[in-house]
Amino acid sequence: xxxxxxxxxxxxxxxxxxxxxxxxxxxxxxxxxxxxxxxxxxxxxxxxxxxxxxxxxxxxxxxxxxxxxxxxxxxxxxxxxxxxxxxxxxxxxxxxxxxxxxxxxxxxxxxxxxxxxxxx
Length: 120
Fold this sequence. Notes:
alpha+beta; single chain; 16% helix; 5 strands; 120 residues
């Protein structure tokens, strides 16, 4: 099974849906021109389609681009929503894997912090 490493420092998530007729070079051009990022960095660039039932991950590996895709049969991905002026969000490798597994990473909340002053 091919999955991104959980310890990836930074993954760039394209917030707006993308036309999935685009291939590797069109997605790389989108990263450069619309997101203002360098597609040749050792980072993952993640895209979804309008129906949010597909995800594509673009990355540069030494001497060429790689494109990974996942298609859901019935469900939808819980995509991050940001302000209208923001076209890209930064997440970590673990968050990307949670997203691929179907978690809504924007609503994940840790346990409440407990504070005590004495042990009884």
